[in-house]
Amino acid sequence: MRVLLSMVAVLVGVLPAGAVAAAPAPAPAPSASASAPTVGAAPLTWGVAPSTRKGPDGRAAFNYKLDPGAELTDYAGISNYSGQPITVDLYASDAFTTPSGGFDLLPAAQEPTDVGTWVAFESRYRRLVIPSKSRVDVPFRLTVPRNATPGDHAGGIVASIAEPGTDAGGNRVRVDRRVGARIYLRVTGELAPAFTVERLDAGYDGTFNPLRGGTVTATYRVRNTGNVRLTGTPRVEVAGPFGIGRRSAGAAALPEILPGGEYTATVQVRGAAPLFRLDVDFGLSPVAVNASMPVPAATGHTAVWAWPWPQAVLLLLLAAGVWLLLYRRRAHARALATARAEGRAEATTSPETGPELSDANPTKSRGT
């Protein structure tokens, strides 16, 4: 089960250590609880949330800003909303950005290397038996290494329940159902936010209507190469040679991308004229999360062929129509000229009226 974690982050100070206390569990929070089927009819439901020695304090995530070498003690409230006791394994892990831009933690079998290693629970708290309808507030120690790199480090505290199950092939497997609360830790030092466009591909889809443009689909992949959580608003511009037929389109803002994380998405520009070769320019205006600082824009460029086949067919049809019209006019003119020539020839021919008398030897009449 995917770790369900809360999104909001607030600043927290150092809290004093204290004993673990069991208390009645509040109503479950959907974003910080999980359910798992059991042998009986009632499912197991549990959750994790930031807490204090006396109970939850309303924080939605563990959010810290600490210097390298700093230490603090905080509490995680593990609540059992079920009608029976549960046994949970408690640990911390590193976070990463999923391909769809989500927030997730490393699988249970994968060892953390970052903030997940900075959180320590006493051995007696790593596996807890929590009575039904109650909560246990567990202290933990967070120690920032002295050589920790400045910037944002993300992770989470997880409470998992392992159960036997079967996979799609019917094989018996161990199903690890877990839920957790996010950790956002900013180590003081120089912040260097940066997005990099690692890939930009484009394709052109024309239309059979020669009077309408097609659609350019730009697929981009960006990576957070800085040390601060980032979001941003993408925009794509499409233009033909010499900037002819320029069109642009934007898209929804990116989700928060952790340092080192990448995100892939598409932007469509509709109504792009098929001008043989189209330039596609991608721009991303990044925004740092929980930090007021300028962030350099991320850009990318590619080109795509856009053949005007419908327009070419229309042009051929128009050319054929003009040729046919001219051909008919010329044929008519030739026929008319032939008819006039024949008429003139007939007009110059005289009709037959008998033999013609000659004046060369006129017949004279003589008297006697």
Question: How does this structure look, described?
Answer:
This protein is mainly beta. It has 3 domains: 21-187, Immunoglobulin-like, CATH 2.60.40; 196-307, Sandwich (Immunoglobulin-like), CATH 2.60.40.10; 308-340. It contains 1 helix and 20 strands. It has one helix spanning 309-347, and strands spanning 21-24, 33-36, 44-52, 55-56, 62-66, 71-80, 86-97, 103-105, 119-120, 127-130, 134-143, 151-166, 172-187, 195-205, 214-224, 230-239, 247-250, 262-272, 276-288, 298-306. Strands 1, 2, 3, 4, 6, 9 and 11 form a 7-stranded antiparallel β-sheet that branches. The longest helix is centred in the C-terminal third of the chain and has 39 residues, at 309-347. It is elongated. The termini are far apart. Mean pLDDT is 84; it is low at 1-21 and 27-31.
Compact overview of the structure:
With 368 residues, this protein is mainly beta. Helices cover 11% and strands 45% of the residues.
